[in-house]
Every structure is written in structure tokens, then in C-alpha cells.
Amino acid sequence: xxxxxxxxxxxxxxxxxxxxxxxxxxxxxxxxxxxxxxxxxxxxxxxxxxxxxxxxxxxxxxxxxxxxxxxxxxxxxxxxxxxxxxxxxxxxxxxxxxxxxxxxxxxxxxxxxxxxxxxxxxxxxxxxxxxxxxxxxxxxxxxxxxxx
Length: 148
Description:
The protein is mainly alpha-helical. It has helices spanning 2-29, 35-53, 57-78, 89-99, 104-118, 126-140. It has 6 helices and no strands. α2 crosses α3 and α4 runs antiparallel to α5. The protein is elongated and about 80 Å long.
């Protein structure tokens, strides 16, 4: 009798664990703001870049530029200057300039190049990409100098 009770309790626990695992997996698979939804959106964006620029240097330059701009927006948000949902880059530029004081020219170049690649399907030359990387490195270090 005791064995029957223990076996029944074991089956109940196993079923409860399986149900919990199913509930957790259901939450991760749903679209919307979930990890899967963000992954699908990321793949769509990259597929669009491949269609516009093909495989090769121009694709890598476009991805690099998009990453630079996204990182600047993230850093600005961490400094208290977040980008509003659906706010276009040219409207967000004054906010970026405030977040990274004294870097207006570099931010102008990065934002203009980002808009050309993201909205205008225009590739970035090697020389432009090198300049944009220098601008990005300079801008992102603003305000990180050690305080006395």
C-alpha cells in the first residue's frame, strides 16, 4: 500500500514538472516582445540588407554601421537620453548631441550614413566606413574619462 502511494506521488510530481516546463516553453515561443519575435525581426532585417547590398563588403559595412548607430542609441539611453519608439534618427540627433556633448559633427556623419544605408539603400565606401569607425570610437568614449 505504501509503495502504491509513493508511486502515485512520484507520477503527480513528474506531471507537475512537465506541465511547468510546457508553460515555460510556451511563454518563450510566443511572438510579440519575446526572444523568438526579436530573433525573427532581426533575421528579416538582415535578409533585407542582403537583398539590397548582396553578400560581401557592402553588406558587412551596412551591418557595422547599423550596429554602431544602435550602440550609440543604447549608450545614450543608459545616460538618460532614450530614443522614443518610432522616433526617426534625424529627430533623435539633437538628443544624441546632448548625450554626447561636443561631438555634433561625428554624430551628424554617423546619423546621415545610417539613414543612407537603412532607408536609402546606399552603400558605404571603405573610406567613409573608416571615418565612421573613428567617429564612433571617439563619441562612445565621451564622458567615460576617469573623474578626479
